[in-house]
Amino acid sequence: MSDKAKRAIGLKYDSSDKKNAPKVVSKGYGDLAQAIIDMAHETGVLVHEDPYLSEVLGNLDVGQDIPESLYFVIAELLAYSYVLQGKVPPGWEDVIKRIDFHA
Questions:
Q1: d(CA 59, CA 12)
Q2: How is the chain split into domains, by residue range?
Q3: Residue 69 DSSP symbol
Q4: Given 24, 45, 59, 97, which residue has the most CB atoms within 10 angstroms?
Q5: Which residues touch 19 (CB under 8 Å, ≥6 apart)?
Q6: For every one of its 103 residues, what pLDDT tens digit does the chain have, with 9 covering 90 and above?
Q7: What is the largest CA-CA distance in the chain?
């Protein structure tokens, strides 16, 4: 993908408020997209590259909740990011203790 076609969409999910969906907190194209990606890397935010997902999310405005049709996909990405970082989602501590990872 050329720099002019590069797109970045930043999402934020507040896990303390279960009623809220992830929101678009940043978005940009070209050089701005690269700046968003660079800042994410610098601050330890994981970056997922998916041209189809970014196309859908790119149609949303900053501050807008993701559509319900994307809840499952975004939930999987959030869960995977927790695993990659060695974290346990809030409230899942007891669930993790009951899982046999050696089965």
A1: 16
A2: 7-98
A3: G
A4: 24
A5: none
A6: 454 578 999 999 887 777 789 999 999 999 999 999 999 999 988 899 999 999 999 999 999 999 999 999 998 888 888 878 878 777 777 777 777 666 5
A7: 48
Structure tokens belonging to residue 102: 């050696």
Q: Which residues pair with 23 in a beta bridge?
A: 12, 65
The kind and range of the H/E element at 26 are: strand 23-29
For residue 48 the two structure tokens come to 């997922």
pLDDT of residue 46: 87
Q: Which two tokens stand for residue 37?
A: 């990606």
Q: How many residues appear in the chain?
A: 103
Which CATH code, of 3.40.1690.10, 3.30.450.20, 3.40.50.1460, 1.10.10.10, is assigned to 7-98?
A: 3.40.1690.10
pLDDT reported for residue 100: 67
How many CA atoms are closer than 13 Å to the CA of 2, on its beta-carbon side?
2
